[in-house]
Amino acid sequence: MTRFLFLIPLILSVIWFVYLRLNGWSMRQGLKGFIYIAAFSVFIAVAYTVLLWLTGR
User: Fold this and answer.
1) pTM for this entry
2) Which residues, 6+ apart, have CB-to-CB distance to 34 below 8 Å?
3) What whole-number distance in Å separates Cα of residue 40 and Cα of residue 50?
């Protein structure tokens, strides 16, 4: 399961990119969304790292 965690930010970024294009916005205008996606992904990675460390796996 943890092997596929890299897909979360990838899929979210693709969805955000498609949303921007469909609404006629530039990547520059949607930069804040990509930053939120990166922050959310880092939070998930840190949470899983701490959980794996606490359980001793």
Assistant:
1) 0.82
2) 13, 16
3) 15
For the chain, how many structural domains are there in total? 1
Range of the domain at 34: 6-55
46: part of which helix (H) or strand (E)?
A: helix 31-55
With contact defined as beta carbons under 8 Å apart, do 31 and 13 qualify? no
Ramachandran sector of residue 24 (left: φ over 0; alpha: ψ -120 to 50; beta: rest): left
Task: Say yes or no to pLDDT of 2 above 70.
Answer: no
Q: Determine the residue type at 37.
A: I
Give yes or no for a contact between 29 and 16, defined as CB atoms under 8 angstroms apart: no
